[in-house]
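Case study B.
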Amino acid sequence: MSFDVDIAFANGAAGAPTALRIASDAALIALTGPSGAGKTSALNCIAGLHRPIRGRIAIGDAVLFDGPAGIDLAPQRRRAGYVFQENRLFPHRRVSANLIYGEMLRDEGERWITRAEVVDFLGIGHLLDRWPATLSGGEAKRVAIGRALLSAPRFLLLDEPLAAIDPARRDEILTVIERIRDTLPVPILYVGHHPDEIARLTTVNVTMG
Amino acid sequence: MTAWLSPAEWEVIALSLRVSAVAMVATLPLAYALAWLLARRRFAGRVLLDAAVHLPLVVPPVVTGWILLIVLGPAGPVGAWLQTHFGIGFVFRWTGAAIAAAVMALPLMVRAMRLSIEAVDRRVVDAARTLGATRWRAFATVTLPLSMPGILAGAVLGFARSLGEFGATITFVSNIPGETQTLPLAIYSGLQVPGAEAAVTRLAIVSVVLSVGALMLSEWLIRRSGAGNSHVL
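Model:
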């Protein structure tokens, strides 16, 4: 299984426990549902930023969380390539320093892609000296994806990557995601809304709420 | 310039700068730790700690000085213990003046730093964690640099507040020329004797110049720390 998730977690402050089950070998799995259904909370559980009430999370042969077994890896040890909806680039670091932040924290043996490859793959060579605040939505998204890829992730979590993108630029980002799905060795969990974009990316769709 | 101020007046200024600098540098780490705790942690006694930190801001400085005397004085629990075991005493010493200045400056420093820590987006800190940073590294590479303007502002505010400290100092360590007589105390003493009007004027001018200088320095430091990414502020 690429994603093998079976958890219950608190969604929001007073939310009733929400359940999520994913068991698939697909290269890209879509996670859909109305807003407030707990899609982002689910990604936070998988990334280690939010603790599930119970259950088990495994990606490939790595167990990230197992309630009964008492396993709960810290976020920095999960190797999640988390691309946040709001990107969350470091505002005090230029694009180049943002890109290598995660790479510098991983062992050489864990890395599977180089800076040059990432820059080339995403076409962001002309942005390296820029400050994050000066980037357009599409540029910032590509940098956020590049930063995640360079952190030697076992898997990618993409939280509504098209949400803040100019409609005219969405195709660009979708193409990048398709290329990651088809050419890079990381399974992707993709949170999205539009049936069109989901249909284009995958046939495996998990619905919440 | 040397002739304009008498050697005794130079001594007052040098002592003031030393007391304020020591008070500010020694308080900086404690103030930042308190600011971080108050900004980021929810724990039992948090409201109490917040109140304790702010106490010197609202209590009459003379009362703060008196409390310092009770606790750190030769008869006080902490003061007696330090005296017996380490031979350290603060009363009538410039170190005591630095302590009084530090206590009075602490709330201002904590406030400035706390605001800047609260302004750091926790979600960006979370992003650092997912990229492989331990809690400590995420703090050192994200929270600390992004709150730097607040640290600088707090440091300068604390320094300026220390330069002006009067009530707690005179109560705790008295007014001894060459040891505890800082600028405000020297100005006060000058006003008690006839014929010292010129000296008082000179010291008052120096006080204003130092304070304005500190303020301008902080403005400059804050602007410089934000150079190239001014949106951080």
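Residues 22-232 of chain B form a domain with the MetI-like fold fold (CATH 1.10.3720.10). The remaining cases will be described in the next quarterly update.
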